[in-house]
Amino acid sequence: MEASTENIITKRIEEEMKESYLDYAMSVIVSRAIPDVRDGLKPVQRRILMAMHDLNLRSNKGYRKSSKVTGDTFGNYHPHEGGTYESLVRMAQSFSLRYPLVDGQGNFGSVDGDPPAASRYTEARMAAFAEELLRDIDKDTVDFVPNYDNTRFEPSILPSRAPNLLVNGSPGIAVGMATNIPPQNLREVVDGVCAVIDDPEIESSDLCQIVQGPDFPTGGLILGRSGIRQAYTTGRGKVTVRARVAFEEEADGRDTIVITELPYQVNKAKLVQDVAKLVQDKRIEGVGIPRDESDRQGMRVVIPVKRGHDRDIALNTLYKHSQLQTSFGIIMLALVNGRPRILSLREMLDAFIAHRLEVTQRATTYDLKKAQARDHIVQGLLVALAHLDEVIELIRSSDSPDEANQELQRRYDLSPEQAKAILEMQLQRLTGLERDKLQKEHEELLAEIERLQNILASREKMLDIIKGELREIAKKYGDDRRTDIVMDSAELDIEDLISDEEMLITLTSAGYVKRMPTDLYRTQGRGGKGIRAMDTKTDDFVEHMFLASTHDYLLFITDTGRVHWLKVYQIPAGMRQSKGKAIVNLLQLQSGERVVQSIAVREFLEDRFLVMATAKGFVKKTSMDAYSNPRRDGINGMVLKGDDKVVGVLETDGTAELMLVTSGGKCIRFQESQVRPMGRVTAGVKGIKLTKGAAVVGMVEVNEEASLLTVCERGYGKRTPFSAYRAQNRGGSGVIDIRTTERNGQVMGIASVLDEDELMVLTAQGKLIRLAADTVSKIGRNTNGVKVIGLSDGDRATTLGLVPQTDTVAE
Question: Which sequence spans correspond to the domains of the chain?
């Protein structure tokens, strides 16, 4: 007899294996291992709570056998008997959940890894916190779906008034993916939800200040915040968790290490055993065999430190070789619309808010319909009371209740429900007092209906309700953090250890840089010989000097128009006569590239500008934020033509007046607005027309309360009010600033100074003088100037800088 082939499907075995495995994988992911982002529960946990709800096991009711709860769970809701009791046990462990969902009575295990007693020996009921997850479930707030055998319905999700996923976390291993969400502090999470509601545009960095990090039920310490920030912004990260320890001294004078809190999920008994083995195997030196002195008052594990050994070194060795220090890998994976997704902190908060909005809307709609239905009945009763005698006579004359019902509807325009309520009305409702109660109830119902309609019409009001509920939960169940977050020396920002103070930066023509406190130099009178600033080679000289705070950024602009930057504290500190460090060891300069100017910047703002001037008289303006992210080898700041070089840089607000001064003693004053903003990789526009052999030596911002200080190579200079220089259009030949005679030499440098300012002038031979600006004569524009610094034979002034008013220090 031939076999029938009509029900046989031909299919390649690899395709069938692939499809079947994917079906199995998705079943494990959705139905067993991964929590839902809305209520933070896996299906078995949700079903355990639903079984308790059916049994009325509230936190203020009596306990029932755990076997009864688990039996009802897998009998009514969960098809897998295995693992149900284990899930219930974990929901009751205060060392596993930050806010336990089950209130257990009996042996539910311990931090020593002791197994729980069998379900027939333990009892359980819902914890008060779990009731917040089920609140309003009877108000059509969530969808119900058929259970596994279609004998009843179960909720697809819980209303979850509390943000359970974040406050209790969730571990889970599925097929091809895993989740490991740490618990957080309830008060912080509530504050985070409220912050998102109040400011939907809140930045992740601000949220990380509110929800500070994991808050493990076992306490301990978290080292650093970088892993927390990474996890909260990307959904993945790793934090280092340490035990909480203290040092005590025993009666014989020896130090002991006392452990009072362990990292999350560390087995205390195994830890003690492992440390003892490490000591016996002499893999750990300096400590003795640990002893467990824990009792009902709390955890206490004592590890003696051997005589002659440093206790800090011994503790660090324990951190390295034992579970006193562990890593917690954060994977914030949860189901979103039935699909697994890695979520950031903000996305989890948004998902919870969206869920609560839907629940609040459905609960309010349910209450509204209920109030409207009741008011409908009350209105019918009031109609009956208004025609009481006629209604009584109508009922008495009717042959049956159905006939009376139909007649009431016809005569008084009532609905079937109203007519039925009238027929079922008790005689005591006919009294005057009951009539007043019905009228009052009608008025109250109208007010309640209006209130509920207003809530449904306003998203803001629903959000206010959610915030109020959360604040109430935080007040009722919230507590202080158990896990402290401490600085991790490995991620300690060196800037936090450096005071914000002013430094003098010097840069030589050969490219040596250093920073020094400004108080190394005492103020001298005009014409003094100065003191030695630094030792230089015979072919080197100090070319640039500027002041900056240790926390400032230093923009280094090179002669090729490229821009590099460092923090001031990254510049090596030096003494007054030290040479400094080669700038090529700090910046990745290209071959032949030389730093010619620098500027200190605190922030890179879009409405601030960097204005560059070149030796050939070109100027260019670019928004400061274009320079905020340079590459390791620098970025292009300006395109130069031919052999042109950058000679001056200013930071401006876009509305300044600029002045260019040439080596030939000419200058031009013009409005910055005549230079339009350009990109980084541009050549700029003409600033001044140069005479033969002249080059631009500097650029300053005009300040009518200040004066222009001009210093020449031979040590002569002068101050001239800016009012002496008339404004011109950009690109002109300018006017005479100072006479560049044989006595003066070429112009070396310029600065905008106030009378109370102090100056520093450096020479090619490394000498420096510090003097008050008002000791330099203020004279007219077309003049020779006065002696500013006395020079030795062959020496020349090379650099001019300003010093703010500071206390002077003797040499």
Answer: 41-133+143-159, 244-323, 349-477, 494-803
Q: 679, 638 in Cβ contact below 8 A?
A: no
Q: Specify the CATH number of the domain 494-803.
A: 2.120.10.90
Query: Distances from the Cα of 254 to the Cαs of 286, 324, 563, in angstroms?
Result: 12, 21, 59
> What is the CATH T-level fold of the domain 349-477, as seen in this structure?
Topoisomerase; domain 3 (1.10.268)
- Catalytic, 569? Answer no
**H helix intervals, 93-185:** 128-134, 164-168
Report, as an integer, the average pLDDT of 438-451: 94
The CA dihedral of 373, 374, 376, 381, to the nearest 10 degrees, is 150
Render pLDDT for 194-243 as a digit per residue (tens, 0 to 9). 999 999 988 888 899 999 999 999 999 999 999 999 999 999 999 999 99
- Provide the pLDDT for residue 807: 38
CA nearest 640: which of 614, 670, 668?
A: 614
Between 3.40.50.300, 3.40.30.10, 3.90.280.10, 3.30.1360.40, what CATH number should domain 244-323 receive? Answer: 3.30.1360.40
Other beta carbons less than 10 A from residue 237's beta carbon: 19
What pLDDT score does 543 carry? 58
Among 24, 121, 477, 512, the active-site one is 121
**Arch. (CATH architecture) of 41-133+143-159:** Alpha-Beta Complex (3.90)
Percent composition of the chain: helix, strand, coil (DSSP 3-state, to 5): 35, 25, 40
Residue reference for tokens 């806010």: 99
Amino acid 3: pLDDT: 56
Is the pTM above the cut of 0.70? no
Q: What is the pLDDT of residues 60-82, one digit of tens each?
A: 999 999 999 999 998 999 887 77
